[in-house]
């Protein structure tokens, strides 16, 4: 006898709730159809379901996301870095207290000698005809952030060696829920022949029909749940082995929305708006925001970040603020709306020559007009860099391109080419190649759990309360 075993999965929703009613409708129908045929079926999430870019996620610190997953009938989930490093310790510790699904992550550990009741390194599930399946979860190792929040991510290969060895003794199939990214998934498949399936995420890759590496099929469904993934495993009970592994990703953007979910989201939105309606400041005049020009609000925010981190100087890009603040009552909801990014302050060390190179690069047209997607940035363009503690003198070439003529500290001191300065900025620039000198800095001090919008609220209270 051959038995088909089904897994439906999502990854990297990032609180894109506009799509969620379609996700719920698809998953409910899939689960009901499998149940009607007496077939085994599990619904799984691979992390980054929570993203505080959305007011619902912000107001309820991810717990509304968990409720939505409960309503959709999830069975298993692992956590992503957006669950792991954008929430304060207690908020993550209690995030899944009310989950109706099991949370699996083998490399997440509390540094406070306590483990949440919901956190399991691996679990076992069983098909309707008795096939035993082991499931392990892993998340990306951003320890520079996690350890500031009293968590630690242990090496993924050590965790796999330990739990695969255990599961081999009592299961027929081993599945990895991996929020590590495609390159890591491929390397794991090369190293661990006992893993049958890797369901992945984190790097937002889309594998429409899966990818076979050695004995393992790797799959992932892109981002924002435009696609839902499906894994179909065929077990031969006579041979006592898997005889077929299939993986597909289905575009659901054209499907009808689940009306009950739409209503739930509307109610959550109203509750979130109420939750975030507390007044921060009363403005007598509108605060202007411009992405390509120097503005007072960006200068004040950059000053706040420099002073709060006790850095020698500071720099922030104007694209961090998405819209102006109208005169009148300004609430947390307004601040979240114009600064929705899960971005933390960071202080890096740069010598004088490196700092000047960073300033030059940040004032180029290509940099300012870059439409960045990712690294925590949720805006449109990077915008003009604003500096604190520095006087940056620029001029224009005949072709209209701006260039840096002089850089001094505001007290008139010239930069020492070899001296190491502490520079406060957005953690966005410590990733990738946007500003290579920042990314390659050997000293990076991140500030968590504060987001830049928390410092924006402080700036508004201090600098604008009486204006």
TrEMBL record:
What is the top-level taxon of the source organism?
Answer: Bacteria
Q: Where are the transmembrane segments?
A: none
InterPro entries, alphabetically?
A: 5'-Nucleotdase_C (IPR008334), 5'-Nucleotdase_C_sf (IPR036907), 5_nucleotidase/apyrase (IPR006179), Calcineurin-like_PHP (IPR004843), Metallo-depent_PP-like (IPR029052), Pesterase_YunD (IPR011240)
For the Calcineurin-like phosphoesterase domain, which residue ranges apply? 8-205
Q: Which UniProt keywords apply?
A: Hydrolase, Nucleotide-binding, Signal
**Mind listing the GO biological process terms from this record?**
nucleotide catabolic process
Please give the Pfam families that the UniProt record associates with this protein. 5_nucleotid_C (PF02872), Metallophos (PF00149)
* An annotated Gene Ontology molecular function: hydrolase activity
Q: Which residues form the 5'-Nucleotidase C-terminal domain?
A: 286-428
| Protein family per UniProt | Belongs to the 5'-nucleotidase family.
PANTHER family referenced in this protein's UniProt entry, alphabetically: 5'-NUCLEOTIDASE (PTHR11575:SF24), 5'-NUCLEOTIDASE-RELATED (PTHR11575)
Q: Indicate what this protein is called per its UniProt record.
A: Metallophosphoesterase
Which species?
Answer: Virgibacillus indicus
